[in-house]
Amino acid sequence: MRENAKEPERHARRMAAKQKVMQQRIERAQKEQGVLLVLTGPGKGKSSSGFGMVARALGHGMKVGVVQFIKGKFSTGEEAFFRDQPGVDYHVMGQGYTWDTQNREQDEESARAAWEVVKNMLADDSYKLILLDELNIALRHEYLDLDEVLDDLQARPEMQHVVVTGRYAPKQLIELADTVTEMKVVKHAFKDQGIKAQAGVEL
Amino acid sequence: MRENAKEPERHARRMAAKQKVMQQRIERAQKEQGVLLVLTGPGKGKSSSGFGMVARALGHGMKVGVVQFIKGKFSTGEEAFFRDQPGVDYHVMGQGYTWDTQNREQDEESARAAWEVVKNMLADDSYKLILLDELNIALRHEYLDLDEVLDDLQARPEMQHVVVTGRYAPKQLIELADTVTEMKVVKHAFKDQGIKAQAGVEL
After folding, report:
1. How far is residue A140's CA from residue B31's CA, in Å, rounded to a whole number?
2. According to the UniProt entry, where is the signal peptide (chains A, B) (predicted)?
3. How many distinct structural domains can be found in chain A?
4. For residue A31, what is the DSSP state?
5. Cα–Cα distance between B37 and B119 in angstroms, integer?
6. Nearest CA to CA, how far is A8 from chain B (Å)?
7. pLDDT grade for B1, boundaries at 50, 70 and 90
8. Of A55, A100, A166, nearest to B51 (Cα)?
């Protein structure tokens, strides 16, 4: 419902009411702690949202860890941009998309090696935010042990934020998470409309 | 449904089939053009996704324009991080959230001034990607004329990407867009669980 542009007083009253609700909410929510955030679902924007949070954390002067569990054969813009930013520790697992390797053993080995990198970050409170990009896909394929992953996430430093992306987030991870967003496809140019995947927005 | 870790051959076959589908899709989708992408819905991650796409585009060496239509009173991490990145032209509209100003006329004026900045970007094909952060909120409050906005978006250079974020994307914008993601709240720490909004992930 759009508001009537002709009623500035009603508008001011509504805005004042909203402001009050926001203030109350902020006052009530005084529990300071690291957040476990999961971005899942089939819609576009999960990884880019995770990388946006990396940028935001860097803007606050935080040290950030990034571990990508799936990487395309294409050079990705995120990697080119973030790998050498000061304050970023950037790791990429293995050898391209799982449907490119076609070798389960190799994928499992790469995933386990990547999780060792994550474990070290999760044990180090100098990392203020850790992005585990496409971890859900590695869990989906059972390249990693879900219980071990959940235990390590729970045992992390109290103030550390972790962002997990990827379709098919396991139910137990959603239960453990503080904030979960599911991204729904309303329309997809690449899939629906025969538009080529575009560098910059897609790759 | 999780696959059985004990069946490496079936796994390799499935991955090969997926690879084939991906290749066919990429071959079919050869239409090179700028994409209009809308990130909407109540879930967390719309703006951060837009900023992730900014980072990705910068990683490809593209020039990027950012116009924020709503800005909190808090300094935001995105602004601190991106404002001085080479290749970024960063503008922030007006004076804080609309529920802080409580002055409709001032908000309309700020929105119109911000749209003039956008118009110049939309007329300049050196901008390869433009992020219009929280534009949907300005449209929702009718601070801008929707038809004018849609006309300007349609008249932009063929290869220019535009990303629009914010709840309540108008139906006509969704119709015009190439790709639309709706972000659904599954859980929200700040709202549901009394956890304070956290610098880095929330602010």
Report:
1. 32
2. none
3. 1
4. B
5. 17
6. 6
7. very low
8. A55
Q: E strands within B41-126?
A: 64-68, 88-92
Is A167 among the domain residues?
yes
DSSP class per residue in A136-174: HHHHHTTSS-HHHHHHHHHTS-TT-EEEEE-SS--HHHH
pLDDT for B94-123, tens place per residue?
A: 655 555 566 788 888 889 999 999 999 999
The residue behind tokens 């957040």 is A35
Residue of B nearest to A128 (CA): B200
Q: Which residues contact A75 (CB under 8 A, 6 or more apart)?
A: none
Residues 29-58 of B with CB under 8 A from A: 29-35, 37-41, 43-58
Query: Would residue A166 count as lying in a domain?
Result: yes
In the block, which residue shows the tokens 């990607």? B129
Residues in chain B: 203
What is the ipTM, given to two decimal places?
0.77
The answer to whether A97 and A74 are in contact (CB under 8 A) is no
The domain that holds A89 is classified in CATH as 3.40.50.300
